[in-house]
Amino acid sequence: MFDDWQELLSPISKSSVKAEEMIHPLSHYWIASSHNTYLTGNQLIGESSVDAYITALKQGCRCVELDCHDGDDGEPIIYHGHTFTSKILFKDVVEALKTYAFERSDFPLILSIENHCSIEQQDRMAKHLVTILGDLLYTKGIKGDEKELPSPMYLQRKILVKSKRLSACATGNDNDNQSESDDDEHDNSKKKKTKEISKKLSDIVNYIHAVHFPGFNNDGAFFHMSSFGESKTIKILSDPETARDFVKYNTRQISRIYPGATRQDSSNMSIVEPWVAGCQIVSLNYQTDDLQNHLNRAMFTANRGCGYILKPEFLRDPSLAYSPTSPSGLDRTKFPTLNLSVEILSGQHIPRPQGVEKGEVVDPYVQIQIHGHPDDSNDTENHKGTKIIDNNGFNPTWKEDFTFNIKVPELAFLDLKVKDHSHTGKDQHLGSYAIRVMDMQEGYRRAYLVDYSGKQLKPASLFVKISKRWSK
Q1: Is the pLDDT of residue 117 over 50?
Q2: 0.90 cut: is pTM over it?
Q3: Residue 24 appears among annotated catalytic residues
C-alpha cells in the first residue's frame, strides 16, 4: 500500500545532497557533532571504545572529540581524565578515523582535540595524524587574502584538526595560558593549566583554531573558534542583546557548545536553543537515548545524512533583523509565517511498551508538539494531542485535525509521540517521529515510528495528512 514516496520526508532528501547548498563558508552550517565521542556510557566509569567513534561516524557525525592524555611507552591515550573511564590508544582511534571518516559522508570531518599531553606526546599525536591519515588530513595554511572559511564542498574528504595554535611569532614550542572553554563549565578532568603547545601539532591546525572567547566586542579572525559550556550558553541566550550578538558571531565564526559538567550521567542539554542562535557545533552524547538525539537525527536526516545542513539566510547574513529570543523580529515579507495543518488519520501496528512481549492491548494516543524558536516552542497552542483509543494498537483511527501557526518555520520541528494511556501508572512512550517542518512533504503521508535510540519500529507508523499555507 505504501512506498517511499509517501513518507513525510522526501526520499530525494534522504538519498541526495543539494550540491548548490554546499558552497557556503563552514560557519553557515549546522554540523552534526558528538561530545566525548569515545564513551559508551556515563562520564565517570563508562567504557571508552574505538567502536564508539565508528558508530558516530556511521550515523553521519562530522565533529568528534578526542580527550588526549599522556600514556605509557610514549603513546598518547584517550579517556575522560581523572575519572575511572577506561583508556584507549590515540593511534587506534586515528586508524579507525582513516577507515570510517567518509563512509557515510564525503564532507569534512573535524577532530576536536582536548590536549592534556606533554610536548613529546603531542609530537607523537602529530606524527600519527600525519602518517596515518596521509592526504586525508588538511594541512595547508591560511592564505593572507582569505576573508572567510572555506566551504564543505571545497573540503570534501578532508579531515580538519580543531585545537590551539602557537602565536604567529613563535619559533618553537610555547606556553598556552588560556583555555578555549569556559572555566565555570569545565569539570576537574578538563581544567586547563599553563601548558606548552607542540609546534608539530600546532602546524596542522588551520581553519578551526581554538581560542579563549574574547567577548562579542572583540572581532576575532574568521578561523578562530571558541567553546561555550551549557551554563554560559544559557546565560548568553537569556539576554536579548547578547543573544543577537551570538547570532552575528555565528555568521562568521564557529562556536562549539557542550553539555555542562554536572551531566555525569551523559544526559544532554537542550539542543534546539543553540541551533536557533546559529551555533554550528552543538555536541551531544550520542550514546544516550533521549529526545535531544531524536531531534538531532531529525535535523541531519535530510541532505543524504551528510552531517551538514545549511542555516537559513537570517542566520547567515548579519545585516538581517533577527533575534533568537522572542519576538524574532523577522521581516515577514521575506520570511513569512506558516499555517501548518496536521491531520492524524490512523496508526498501524503500534508496538507495546519496550520490553513487553505480551499482555493487555495498548490504548494509544498521539502528542503533537512544535520545537523551534521560542516564538513557537513556548506557544501553548503548539502542544496538542489526540483522543485515546481504547484497546487497539493494530489499527487505531483518530481522524483529528490540528492547526499550528508557526512563526519561524525555518527553525521548527514537528514531533509526533505515540503513548499508551495507563489507568494505574505512568503513560508509556511507544514510539516517535520527528522532522524539520521545512523538509515535510504535503498530502497523505506515512510517518514510521522509531524509539529514542533511533531504532526503526517498522511496520509501526502513523498515517497523516499535511498541508501548508504561508502568510506574509
Answers
A1: yes
A2: yes
A3: no
